[in-house]
Amino acid sequence: MNVKTALILLLLALATIFALVCVLLTRGPAPSTCQHQPPEHEDPDDGRSLVFADLTPEELVQVVRYLQGSLGVPLVDASRAKPSDNCIASVDVQVPAKAEVLRFLDGGGARPAREALAVLYFGDQVDPNVTEYVVGPLPMPTYHRDVTVQKYGGKVPYHRRPVTGVEYKAIDALIQWELRKAPRFLAACCASDGTDLATLTTAPRGFKSGDRATWFVLFHGVAGTGYYVLPVGLEVLVEHGELDISLWYLRQVFYNGRYFSSTAELEDAFVANLLEVVRVEKPQEDTVMGSMRPRRPPGAPGPLQYEPQGPRYSIRDNRVTFQGWSIAFGMNPNTGPRLFDIRYRGERIIYELSLQEALALYGSNCPGGMSTRYLDGSFGIGRFAYELVRGVDCPYTATYVDRHYLAESDVPRTNQNSLCVFEHDTALPLRRHFSDMQSLYYGGLRKNALVIRAISTLINYDYVWDFVFYSNGAVEVRVHATGYISSSFLHGQGTDYGNKVGPHTLGTMHLHHIHYKVDLDIDGQLNSLESHDMGYELVRDPWSLQNTLERPFLRRERLERENEAAFPLNAPLPRYLSFAGPKPNRWGHSRSYRVQVVSFPGEHLPTSSPMERAISWGRYKLAVTRRKEEEPTSTSVYNQNDPWTPTVAFSDFINNETITNEDLVAWISVGFLHIPHAEDIPNTVTVGNSVGFFLRPYNYFDEDPSVDSPDSIYFSSVQEAEACGTNPLACLPAAACAPHLPPFRYGGFLNI
Questions:
Q1: Do the domains 165-272 and 50-158 match in fold?
Q2: Which stretches make up the Copper amine oxidase N3-terminal domain (predicted)?
Q3: Which CATH class is domain 319-698?
Q4: Which of 169, 210, 445, 582 lies most in the core, judged by the most C-beta atoms within 10 Å?
């Protein structure tokens, strides 16, 4: 290489380096990592919200130890207890009486004693029963008292107890034993020897009080997919009421429209060629209907929500604060999410907001489907709220919180990351206006909200429980249904009860009805219920008396008694129904919060049904009653297995008492009719399957409180909208940063 060539190459290299430097300089610096700023200052809680807190694992352990040493009877660990044993079924916090709590929170009174509610099954007694004890004080208990009669008016009969895991295992073993008596039938119908068939329980379990006989539906069990949509046509009725498991037996068998007294009789009919068999081949894992395995390779990542300066909410113990909101949160193992002492700008609006029950009522021409009325609280709405998947179940950067419970075991369990909290950008303005008249300006405010979420998996269905808090003082409560449909084997006139969704699968129609308790306290405990609606009045035009017009007018009414405030499920509600406090706002109107229900329910079970009283809360879209300490919940876990003599009947709460200037509770039912269709395979989507209600300020403030939001945007034609000092949105490019994303981890399968 000569000198001239070397110089030319050197000059080209220098030019290239110079060009790269110029490009880098014009691009600017790479985004820095987002720097978290502390959330806005909130009033210190001083740990007062812990009066509502769920029990810690340490407290649960101490309650178990105390009961084991203080009751004077042998207690078997519930994880292995037979029906004939005594065991601790569950332990939860005993929330103190409201008056006691308010004296502590508002009146400077003593902190209430921390106590637990323990449920025990006494099977090893002359008179087997379910007993509930209040145990305290925590963390080191020294006393217990039986509250069963006080709560329910008598002992809880033993047959009302929920079915335990030990019982389900014994039933599965019995079914497997019986299936061995029909080997040729199983080979012909299902390409199976029975060991690979999965069972699904139904409920309730009989036709009258004391019954404990359950239909179990059999499905092809394929690993990694929802077997609920793979029925084989076989269902069995198991008698399991005796305390001695060895006395349980298979009472009846159903197959393809016919009933048999045993699997042996079914086998005999098949061998004698007296049975029409529909062969259902065992599906292959890679082609099975209902599989949720991805069918395409991953694509580019979708949009990601993140907080440039970290979360603007704060969580301390069981309390979350956000832009004026303060909420104490928890999880009941049976009934699920519960919130207490909900305040906005320092004022309590809601004392308690809690889920009560979730009902799924099915129709079918198969015995299992037609008899199913699941009351999910008896299975454990909170207990089966498992770990949430970061980035799918909640935003990737949400805050995830563990929940602890003790049920069917002497050892506490933890559902890690099973509740999430996040600020949500709804991508919609909360309010806005573009002015093109008189003057030119734009004003707007993003509709950001705080969300508290949990998701329960209750056998086949998954329910997403949302509690949403907005900057205008409104609260939204909603539930989204997803998961798998339950199905029956398609035979005869099956499509009278649903749609065909697979070769032999009938997607059975069903109702989802959800019940909530809302204890509103507007300007204190003493509230009244007011309805505002519209009518038309025919009037002569004042400026043209020969003409008339129909003028809308406002119809105001105060509802005086509970019977007036019990609105049937499918009857129209007053368009504005409000809890009114004793004080007026600046404009002379009662400070109020409006209840607005968004629901599309099916028909309630006829009141002539012998089990209707157990779900009589479902008669009403909304019922307002006087709050009573002895009416803490609208139902009971014991209603599922004895709906014919319900332990708690909500209809008894409504007895026409006065509701003027009283401590009131709104009991709200939401739901929808689900007729499964082809698009419910592989499983149901949340789109369109969401219902709930709003609690909205109605003259509670003197103006919309969101005017004080730091997120407000305003600029006019005489201002430079692109200037950072005028418009905070213009500051975003300069504040751009790369979010710190925690590594993806999941341990939800470890605690099943």
A1: yes
A2: 161-258
A3: mainly beta
A4: 445
Least confident of 9-18, 151-160, 212-221, 355-364: 9-18
State how far the Cα of 288 lies from the Cα of 144, in Å rounded to an integer: 53
For residue 660, give every residue at least 6 positions away whose Cβ sits within 8 Å of its Cβ, in sequence order, or none. Answer: 528, 558, 560
Q: How far apart are CA 334 and CA 478, in angstroms?
A: 19
* Alpha-carbon span 737 to 27, nearest angstrom: 15
Query: What's the rounded mean pLDDT across residues 295-299?
Result: 90
**Per-residue pLDDT at 25:** 40
Distance CA 230, CA 219 (A): 5
Q: Which of 66, 461, 698, 700 is catalytic?
A: 461
Architecture label for domain 165-272? Roll (3.10)
Tell me how far apart the alpha carbons of residues 196 and 202 are, in angstroms, rounded to a whole number.
Answer: 20
Give the C-alpha separation, 514 to 6, whole Å.
82
The whole-angstrom distance between residue 39's C-alpha and the CA centroid of its chain comes to 28
For 604-735, strand residue ranges (E) read 620-626, 664-674, 690-698, 713-716
Quick one: what percent of the chain has pLDDT higher than 90? 84
Q: Give the pLDDT of residue 6.
A: 52
pLDDT in tens, 214-262: 999 999 999 889 999 999 999 999 999 999 999 999 999 999 999 999 9
Which CATH number is associated with domain 50-158?
3.10.450.40
pLDDT at 269 (0 to 100)? 97
In the numeric block, which tokens belong to residue 175?
């079914």
Tokens at 490, concatenated: 């398609």
d(C-alpha 212, C-alpha 239), whole Å = 6
Give residue 721's pLDDT: 81
Q: Is the pLDDT of residue 20 over 50?
A: no
| Own/partner pairs, 403-406, CB within 8 angstroms, 24+ separation | 403/54, 403/331, 403/454, 404/54, 404/55, 404/56, 404/57, 404/60, 405/54, 405/60, 405/90, 405/92, 405/331, 405/333, 406/55, 406/60, 406/63, 406/64, 406/88, 406/90, 406/91, 406/92, 406/333
The answer on pLDDT for 555 being more than 80 is yes
b/e sequence 632-668, b meaning 16+ C-beta within 10 Å? bbbbbbbbbbbbbbbbbbbbebbeeeebeebbbbbbb
Is 642 a catalytic site residue? no
Query: Cα separation of 112 and 508, whole Å?
Result: 49
* HSE-CB for 630 with a 13 A CA cutoff: 9
Each residue of 669-679: pLDDT tens digit?
A: 999 999 999 99
Give which of 264, 64, 78 is closest to 184, Cα–Cα. Answer: 264
The active-site residue out of 376, 410, 523, 680 is 376
Instruction: Please report where in the chains the tokens 């998701």 appear, as a residue.
Output: 455
Give the pair of three-digit tokens for residue 28: 């600017």
Rounded CA-CA distance 498/283 in Å is 23
Q: Which two tokens stand for residue 262?
A: 């045993």
User: 35, 63 in Cβ contact below 8 A?
Assistant: no
Q: What DSSP state is assigned to residue 459?
A: T
Catalytic residue check, 376: yes
Contact 127, 142 (CB under 8 A): no
Per-residue pLDDT tens digits for 265-291: 999 999 999 999 999 999 888 788 999
* Domain positions in the chain: 50-158, 165-272, 319-698
